[in-house]
Automatic annotation (TrEMBL), chain B:
Cellular component, GO annotation: Atg12-Atg5-Atg16 complex; autophagosome; mitochondria-associated endoplasmic reticulum membrane contact site; phagophore; phagophore assembly site membrane
Record key words, sorted: Autophagy, Cytoplasm, Isopeptide bond, Transport, Ubl conjugation
Assembly description: Conjugated with ATG12.
Domain named Autophagy protein ATG5 alpha-helical bundle region: residues: 119-175
Gene Ontology molecular-function annotations: Atg8-family ligase activity
One example of a Gene Ontology biological process annotation: cellular response to nitrogen starvation
Residues in Autophagy protein ATG5 UblA domain copies: 12-105
Primary role: Required for autophagy. Conjugation to ATG12 is essential for plant nutrient recycling.
Domain Autophagy protein ATG5 UblB: 214-317
Cell compartments where the protein resides: Cytoplasm
Protein name: Autophagy protein 5
Amino acid sequence: MGGHCLWDGTLSPNDFIASADDLTKKWMAINPNLPQWTWIPCQRMDVSCNAEGYLALENMYQLSASEVNAPTDDENYSAEEAPFDNATLIQSYNDDMHIYDFHIVYSFSYQVPVLYFRGYRCDGHPLHLCDIEKDLPPYSSKIRNESKWTFMTQEEHPYLCCPWYTLHPCGTSDWMKLLLGGDLPSKNPDMLHYLSAWLSVVGQTVGLRIPLELHDKSI
Amino acid sequence: MELCSKEAVKYVWEGAIPLQIHLHESEVTTLPPPPPILVLGSRIGYLPLLVPLIKPHFSSTLPPGTDTVWFDYKGLPLKWYIPTGVLFDLLCAEPERPWNLTVHFRGHPGDVLTPCEGEDSVKWSYINSLKEAAYIINGNCKNVMNMSQADQLELWQSLVKGNMDGYLRISSRLKLGPLGEDCIVRSASSSAQPRQAIGEPDFTGSGRPCHLSFKCAMKTLLPKIFFEEPLVDDHEFLREGETVGADSSYGDSETIGGSWNAQAEEIPFAGQPQVQLLKKSKIKMIRIQGIELDMDIPFFWVVNNLKNPEYFLHICVFIGTSTDQSTFR
């Protein structure tokens, strides 16, 4: 089986950093009007990995499920850009908008990225899981109902040390292996695009819309 | 020295912390206020598992409402998913006996502490930790995921009841050890090293000695903190974990999976999530399962015998830092 891809679906800390940079640039090129990913560096005590940190996307506005009359197809707006006129904006800029923060953190145990997220109402009041669930796509709610403790849980954010919601990473390497490693078994996977590929799957689970252009390797 | 000592494991399983639990004054509605209750908290257990013992003692004095139980030590909310023994070793440099804790049934600080919804929360936190350890050791957590419901339940109940023999019987089927000299070091800084499968002999360039001492292991895991000779410095001993505000965590604890994947837990100081170590930080004490270890003990003996049931070894490291606040980031 010479040349067969033995990649196990994981990525190294350095690949994570490089891929984070790639995702940040691609996102900026595709969605310049949306909130941007920012690399937040952190120096954990005594860990020698030089450029440790995580990716943050904050203030992502999302119409809550109770808002029926979505004026455009795209449900995600930035705080700065209002795609519809002010009259409509005033009406809907109220209890029906939820604001989400997403962080992509590297897990040293599982050697994969992990998504941490939390939501707020417009008044700053944090969303409980039951509120967040209403924002999730239907299939995510279904999975959550079936595997309450192993799919989406509240955990301590590894760097901020307060509770955030997270998607459990134990299956990530398996499906990333299928996603990125399946095409050409004799070639090594393109690690630079790991995060874009990963986010295209994981983002959908939490209702974060990922533009198709994120997969375009020419950007 | 043999790698596994059932006698040592027995000592660990039988270890317990005498606790004196006080009800928070804001939740006392009767006069005279109820006295504190004395309970023994198993070292390898978790504080929420003691609630069935504690609650009846206070239930007649609680205000009406629904309970979300949480504990604090001197105002610091305690992370319920950390084993009781580790909490004690981290927070009490000078062991306090009994250990005085405050229990709350209301007013859960949701902004700093994940809520615990009873025994199920603790069980799943434990299972997730076990999965993480299995993943580090084997590269996958299939053995844990494929456990039958009955086995999972029995494993958990053995832990809750302190039934070591029952636990060892089921956990041995998971094939997560014992760990020996053929295991690979993988730390967060080793991204440059080629990855090897567990079980292969370690052929890294550094050429590990055949019997890795605890001291050598600590130098590998904490190279910036661990110095060969103790340094002379004027810094007052400030336990890492001394906190100013309630929104802080505590304790510098290295938790190491079977293949030594090192993760340092951070210590926020009064809301600051990071601590900048001084260059001359000095190790004051290292404690595992309440024991200050002889640094020459073979590391694998420590791993195999002093680890917790979720296959993590919790190493509590106390280092000296300056009391000068301006040095902290």
